[in-house]
Design goal:
By secondary structure, the chain is of the alpha+beta class. It is about 25% helix and about 20% strand. The chain is built from twelve helices and 19 strands.
Length: about 450
């Protein structure tokens, strides 16, 4: 491989094919569609060239050629975190970098950039270990931690980014580096929560949690009980220990015969409780909430969601410093069960209790912000015809109605297509944002990276 050849934009495809072991595809190639397909179907990726590297040398060659040709580079894992379509430059699909190796002696896993969390969980389970993954095990592991990584065990063990020991990364100047607390520490700090514009991660090593059993339960409450139970849940959240993780979702269920009969076609409040510890202790903690109203359905064992197929959705999330009765009133006024689905086509209006281990990194500091926030507030709509109009407007209205409680920071993973423009840049506190800018200038001096990576 000769890195000193000047490559023009018109010749970059031929140059890539000459230097890469992995796939190189243009829109006229049969494999192009599979390489550019992402999780979100609300927009399409249409870059002039898509590549599927199979190793670090391929990634170095891609970055080197992109610099020489003056082309932007975007890395795509599973695509859950993308908010727009990619139409220019080189799209790097990381699926060919899929691998996972668990070391039970150190409770760690080495994970390739194309690996999904389900693959990590399956490899770790025989050793009584579990990763700090998200609620959807089909999400790409690397992109998840680069954007912070808020998961169902967060209050107990922290963000996914907090569990990273090291990254293997190709920087914008074409170097293949291993970064950790002792080597290129400023880049290691930035990659954990800094999300994009920092490099293409090819692998990472993370700590696993020695935990073979987690106790999860979901209870569903009828529309008539939503307001009372949600208020009780907010009050209850103020006194729970770090071992309890909990969500409240106002959900509109489809009229699907495969669903349990009490859920079909209903608007319900779904409370999910995930406890780390003795099951009886967890149920005792939840017992006061069970007195609020009679649930219409109980789903034991609920911890993570089933892996979702690609979907057409608009979503948006923010962090809140508090949640009070006025905020609950405002949320329910806009999206409560009194509204029909035709008027409010939102499938989920969700709250997650933060705090606990999320409030501070248990190892070295990193770029994750919003650690003082009390709740995460995330809204999803899935009607394709009104994604960019009614749904986006309603999600932004819900964010606006609790704006007085909005945290000054959040994590990039939580920001979706329906967030206000520029919300990603405002995700970090000003001092963190400035430091991220300095790191990007140091490791990507020509600014070739775009939104790398997404989970």
């Amino acid at each position: 491989m000769t890195a000193d050849i000047t490559v023009t934009a018109s010749g970059v495809v031929e140059a890539l094919r000459g230097r890469l072991r992995g796939e190189v595809a243009t829109p006229s190639d049969a494999r192009y569609g599979e390489l550019v397909a992402g999780f979100h179907l609300a927009f399409a990726h249409t870059p002039p060239v898509a590549v599927g590297p199979t190793g670090v040398d391929d990634v170095v060659a891609i970055v080197t050629l992109a610099r020489e040709a003056g082309l932007p580079v975007t890395a795509l894992g599973e695509g859950h975190g993308f908010h727009r379509g990619v139409s220019d430059g080189i799209l790097v699909r990381t699926r060919g970098l899929r691998s996972v190796t668990v070391d039970p002696a150190t409770n760690t896993a080495r994970i390739g950039a194309g690996t999904k969390w389900q693959e990590v969980a399956d490899a770790a389970a025989p050793f009584g270990l579990t990763p700090l993954s998200g609620s959807d095990a089909g999400v790409g592991a690397v992109g998840y931690v680069l954007g912070g990584g808020l998961g169902p065990l967060g209050r107990t063990y922290g963000y996914g980014a907090d569990a990273v020991i090291s990254f293997d990364v190709v920087t914008g100047d074409g170097r293949a580096l291993t970064v950790d607390d002792q080597h290129h520490a400023e880049l290691f700090w930035a990659l954990r929560g800094g999300n994009h514009g920092l490099g293409i991660v090819t692998a990472m090593t993370v700590r696993l949690v020695p935990l073979d059993t987690v106790h999860g339960n979901a209870w569903y409450y009828a529309a008539t009980d939503v307001e009372a139970v949600l208020r009780d849940w907010v009050r209850w959240c103020g006194g729970i220990p770090d071992t309890m993780n909990t969500y409240a979702h106002l959900v509109r269920m489809p009229d699907d015969p495969e669903l349990p009969e009490p859920l079909r076609g209903q608007t319900l409040l779904e409370l999910i409780h995930i406890y780390v510890g003795d099951e009886s202790d967890g149920l005792e903690l939840v017992e006061p909430l069970l007195r609020s109203a009679e649930p219409v359905f109980h789903e034991p064992g609920r911890v993570r969601e089933d892996t979702m197929a690609p979907v057409t959705v608009a979503d948006g999330g923010i962090y809140l410093d508090d949640l009070d009765d006025e905020a609950v009133d405002a949320i329910l006024a806009l999206a409560g069960p009194q509204h029909s689905y035709d008027d409010v086509p939102l499938v989920s209006v969700g709250l997650q209790r933060l705090g606990g281990a999320l409030a501070s990194p248990r190892t070295s500091s990193n770029a994750v912000t919003g650690r003082d926030a009390a709740y995460a507030f995330h809204v999803i709509g899935a009607e394709p015809d009104v994604i960019d109009t009614v749904i986006t407007d309603q999600i932004r209205a819900l964010h606006c109605c609790v704006d007085r409680l909005k945290s000054s920071g959040t994590i990039p993973n939580y920001i979706g297509k329906a967030n206000e423009p520029g919300e990603v840049d405002r995700a970090w506190l000003p001092d963190v944002r400035r430091q991220l800018g300095r790191v990007r200038e140091q490791y990507d001096p020509d600014g070739i990276f775009r939104d790398s990576h997404t989970n």
